[in-house]
Amino acid sequence: MIMVNITTMSGFLLVGFSDIWELRILHGLLFLAVYLLNLAGNLIIIIITTVDKHLQAPMYYFLKHLSLLDLSFISVTVPQSINNSLMDDGYISQGQCILQVFFFTSLACSEVAILTVMSYDRYVAICFPLHYEVIMNPSKCKWAMIAVWLSGSISGILYTIVTFSMTFCKAKIIHQFFCDIPQLLKLSCSNDYLAVIGVAAFMSMLAFICFTSIIFSYIRIFSTVLRISSAEGRSKAFSTCLPHLFVVSFYLSTGAFAFLKPTSDSPTAFDLMISIFYTVIPPSLNPVIYSLRNEAMKEAFRKLLLGGQFISEKTVLSCC
């Protein structure tokens, strides 16, 4: 690996993966394949939900924004990691690191917020179907998404400011494949990180409130679904809700574990795997979970590939 003087460099050195050249190449190629699949899957969702006038229900509107978030989220860390692996150079400038921390934090917080909004949308659709169009009208959906993006941006600004207001006293070596905030805290002087902990505690409280809201929504959803007399109706409702609950639980649990566990000077393969679980896997799984299980989306995609007209309104309504 190309080494720079770590005592005088202005940026940081990312040393997340193996020092063996062949393994770094393998990592770079695997990340490239995952990134391209993620790019294709999320772009397809964005295109279909934009151009098909029948896929304009709130569920698809939020799904489109989730795909945009996923595409942006994975683009913050993975391309840089691919470049570092294939170029055999782990250096990242301080400016790049600042931008990475800002966008990573902003998009992660926005992801939690939109998953909360989507759970509320499913709650209203299943528990109050007759009032769904009134409660989830286009104006409210628009303001909900503005709140999602604003909350993420504000969180990212706060976290970035307090993180890079620290004085980095130690060698600027980050044992990760991206500018990981817990790793940055290890490089700071004695009490410089207290402001970061305060901001992190506040954001953790907001994440807990979001998670509690999601759990409350699904308790109400499941209690309503279990009262449905039709087995087919129960199956359709569960097939819609359970994948969303899985995504939320997987994303929040791995992220919380990674940020709450003590950081070590020599991270193990398990530590790196956990970081992959909350940075790479969820954005890649969402297109599969939310599209391949949705008949309206699959039919629209088939029509798009064949160059035909988009699905009829009757088909969309039957799938929703």
TrEMBL record:
- What is the residue range of the signal peptide feature? none
Sequence intervals crossing the membrane: 28-48, 98-120, 141-162, 193-219, 240-260, 272-292
* Pfam families from the UniProt entry: 7tm_4
Name the keywords, alphabetized: Cell membrane, G-protein coupled receptor, Membrane, Olfaction, Receptor, Sensory transduction, Transducer, Transmembrane, Transmembrane helix
Family that this chain belongs to: Belongs to the G-protein coupled receptor 1 family.
Topology versus the membrane: Multi-pass membrane protein
Please tell me the species this chain comes from: Chrysochloris asiatica (Cape golden mole)
Known role: Odorant receptor.
G-protein coupled receptors family 1 profile domain spans which residues?
41-290
- What is any one of the record's Gene Ontology cellular component terms? plasma membrane
The answer, when asked if Transferase is one of the entry's keywords, is no
Q: Any idea which GO molecular function terms this record carries?
A: G protein-coupled receptor activity; olfactory receptor activity
- The identity of this protein, by name, is Olfactory receptor
Q: Where in the cell is it found?
A: Cell membrane
For whether the record's keyword set contains Ligase, the answer is: no
Superkingdom of origin: Eukaryota
Q: Which gene is this protein's source?
A: LOC102832569
- What SUPFAM superfamilies would the database entry show? Family A G protein-coupled receptor-like
